[in-house]
Amino acid sequence: SAGFGGSGSNSQVFNPHSAPAINSPSHVFFDDELPPVEEPFLPPCEPGTYTLVLDLDETLVHYFDLGPDSHFLIRPGCSEFIEELSKYYELVIFTAAMQDYADSVLDQIDKNGCIRYRLYRQHTSPYGHLIAKDLGKIGRDLSKSIIVDNVADNFALQPENGIFIKTWYDDMSDTCLYDLIPLLKGLVESQVKDVRKSLRSYRD
Fold first, then answer.
1. Residues in CB range of 49: below 8 A, 6 or more apart
2. Model's pTM, two decimal places?
3. Which residues does the UniProt record annotate as the domain FCP1 homology (predicted)?
């Protein structure tokens, strides 16, 4: 634990008002019918900015597709994680989900606007028959960019920038987000020149 209290409001259950029929598996097949998106995906940032790219489904939330009773749960520590790390990083959500679903969830879990940008399925790249989240297309310095995802294939194009996090469904005793806070804060506080080298040491 990073010293932030219990799960608190993170144990809430939400039912998006206009949630469409949603399929948000961890592994998503590439959809070549979506229109291409101009690169880089993000506008320029200040030099020296550290960027933290976060997956959504099974990393921050889990959606239960139960027809009229559909809802999503928020992973313990999500609010604290987002709010605390927004002081150190430019936060970007990069999800393989469709935009209408992702926005309906993000509007509820990020009421304070800590997440700077949102990237969706149309921003993903083909990786075999699946998808990858290509950090090289977002327009950020890879030496200062980190992606946290529960599917390692999603950051297969830049594996040294990735932090794998355990898939989450509904375990309200989970502490994975809390546990990552000290590491991620420490990288910025130390002003590391290349996060990839530091993450290599972390994995070892």
1. 90, 140, 141, 144
2. 0.84
3. 45-187
